[in-house]
Amino acid sequence: MITHIRISAAPERKIPKAGDERFLKGRGVWQIRQQVRYWWRGAYGAWAVSNGRPVWEWVDKGGPRGRSVPGWEPSV
């Protein structure tokens, strides 16, 4: 006969969201989470999706692919 039941679980993993930041110790840079955007014909772009859900990426904050800096321009 069972008299005690012990249930243990690891803490929930935080799921990254848009605008979240992280620091990479090895490279010494901050990265920001943003949605993937594809460009073609210079100025036309589309947000990437997979199975109807947006695709996200980590990019260097202030880098050429980051859109968080003023004067950001698409790279073709």
What this model shows, in words?
By secondary structure, the chain is mainly beta. The protein has one domain. The chain is 0% helix and 37% strand. It is built from no helices and 7 strands. A 3-stranded antiparallel β-sheet has the order 1-2-7, with no helix packed on it. It has a two-stranded antiparallel ribbon with strand order 3-4. The chain is elongated, with a radius of gyration of 19 Å.
**Any idea what the shape is?**
elongated
Kindly provide the radius of gyration, computed on alpha-carbon positions and rounded to a whole number of angstroms.
Answer: 19 Å
**Cross-sheet strand order for the largest sheet:** 1-2-7
Question: What is the β-strand count?
Answer: 7
Q: Give the terminus-to-terminus CA distance.
A: 69 Å
Average of pLDDT: 81
State the order of secondary-structure elements, H for helix, E for strand.
Answer: EEEEEEE
Could you estimate the helical fraction of the residues in percent?
Answer: under 10%
Number of domains: 1
Characterize the main sheet. Answer: 3 strands, antiparallel
The total of helices stands at: 0
- Low-pLDDT stretches are none
Broad structural category: mainly beta
Strand content: 35-45%
